[in-house]
Each structure stands twice: as C-alpha cells, then as structure tokens.
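input
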Amino acid sequence: MQQGASDFAGQVALVTGAGSGLGAVTARLLAESEARVVLADLNKDAAGEVAESCGGRPLYMDLTDAGSISGGVEDVLATEGRVDILVNSAGLDFIRSAPELTLQEWDNVVNVNLRAPWLLAKLLMPGMMERGSGQILNVASTAAKKGWENAAAYASSKHGLLGLTQVLHSEGRTSGVRAMAVVPGGMRTNFFAALDPPPPPENLQPPETVAQSILFMLSQPLDSVIHELIVTPMTETSYP
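output
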C-alpha cells in the first residue's frame, strides 16, 4: 500500500469558483489541511475574503476566456512552482428551455462547466505527469445522471464533464495522475437564487457535506481511486 494523500501539507491546490459556495468551503478545508491554496474566481474580491479567512491566495480567472485561464495558470506556476491538486468547482447555468436558450448562454455554460476544466487539465497535467503525481477533482452534478427541464446546456456540459474525467484518468493514471468526479445533488448555495420560488433549504444539503466528500476522495491511498461519488440530500427528487 502506498502512502495516502491525506496529508496535504505543502501541496499546492488550485480551486476554481472559490469565491463562494462549494468552492469556498473546499478551499477552506484544504487550507485547514495545510495545503497551499490558490482561490480562483471571476470575483477576485470575494475570493480574497475567503482567502483572508483561510490563508490562501486569491486569483482572478474568467473561465469563459481561454486567455484568462492560461494567464492564471502561468501566474500560479510562477508563484507556487507547481499545482498538485486541481479542483474544478466553478459552475454556471441559465434556467431556460432549450428553444429559449441563446447561443451566447449555451457557449458560456459549456465554456465554464466543460471547456475550462479541460483547458486547466491540458495546462497542468504535463507537469503532474512529469512529477509522477497529481489529482484532478471535477465537480459534476446529478444533472449528469438524469436530465430535467430548462437545463439543456447545464445537463449537457455535466454529462460531458463525466466523460472528460474518465478520459483524463485513463491518460494520467500510468503517470500517477488520477482524475475523479463528485456528483452532488442540490446544495444550500446561491446557485438556486434565480429560481422562483427557490427550493426549500431543508430539501438541500450544506456545501460542507460535499466538500468533505471531496477531501475524502483526495485523501485516498495513491494506489487507488474513487472514480465517481454521488452525494445528494435524502430529499433529492432529481436522482435517482
């Protein structure tokens, strides 16, 4: 049995969407586990507030802009030297029926939810593979398992993210790089703010539950992998 990854001391973790919600909680937990955390977000001020509370470093990153992503990665590598853990937590959705969804909205959702995780992996995996270790954790959704109305772009992007995760793991595993996906149900974050009415809070799970699941996956012995982990509230109706 190889040494586990439960000790994150000194490891560099890049977390997207870290200014709020699940990304913020995950960044805090990683920092509490002594990782050096870079908190990437479109709202750098929000990421900065989270960073102040956990000792991480905020980073502006627009996940719809390939140049912003590559520039952000260059910044992290220049400052930290490497990235050991990549958590793709950022997510975007527009609540529209398939006919109502605009091309720009479709592109933005797919760019944030699918293209950005691929591009970040493209930029960071070579270094991980050269070092012989690295972890990529993608945050999917139960929408990747069961589609529902008014979520054409979101469900499509999350289905694609699961496929991407499998490919990344297949390509990285022989070099010590594992890729995993957590599949959360509804959480008590601002993600549902656009719904009218929003789901009752008692029907949602706290993001801390999913963040703890992420750390559990990242903490497994390095000779094993949890490919997917589905975490939903007991009251979840969208899955199974």
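quick obs: The radius of gyration is 17 Å.
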